[in-house]
Amino acid sequence: MIYLCTFMLLGIGLHIYQVIYPEFMVDGDSMYPTFINEEQIKVKAHHQPKRWDVVVFQPPEESEETTYLKRIIGVPGDHIRYKDDQLYLNNIAVDDPFSENTDNFDIRRLLGIKKIPEGYYFVLGDNRGISKDSRLFGLVPEDNIIGIVAEGKDSYEENTGSD
């Protein structure tokens, strides 16, 4: 009986862990070269996202089954602009290793706002030329963010201890 109870508790614990830290499969090349198509990823954290975090989220105005994987570029209070492959945050040039081939834009003209409001984030795919991101669907509400994932080719193994 003790073994049965222990087994049931382990099963419940595993189920709760999988709900809190779900796994996803990358679908497409919008986050290449950071993540590759069909790579398995796992949510690693649920703290308030920071700039440069890669997040899994439900895009605004899409079904709950739809999830995207993108990098947070803008956080509440930011003004964002790209000009000639250079990112400007609040009018200060900032290094962005994925800014090459990013079309010029200004958040004021793009979304009609001066700064990102509280509770919202501006996301971009690392492969900017093909990414469907905040430039198309707008800001992502914090409530739509499922979690933060580890970066890198071996992110799944880092999160699970798998080989």
TrEMBL record:
Residue stretches spanning the membrane: none
Compartment annotation: Cell membrane; Membrane
One of the protein's GO biological processes: signal peptide processing
GO cellular component: plasma membrane
Enzyme active site: S30, K70
Enzyme nomenclature, EC number: 3.4.21.89
Stretches assigned to the Peptidase S26 domain: 5-149
Membrane topology, record value: Single-pass type II membrane protein
Pfam families membership: Peptidase_S26
Record field: catalytic activity: Cleavage of hydrophobic, N-terminal signal or leader sequences from secreted and periplasmic proteins
Annotated GO MF terms: serine-type endopeptidase activity; signal peptidase activity
Keywords, ordered alphabetically: Hydrolase, Protease
Family: Belongs to the peptidase S26 family.
Protein name: Signal peptidase I
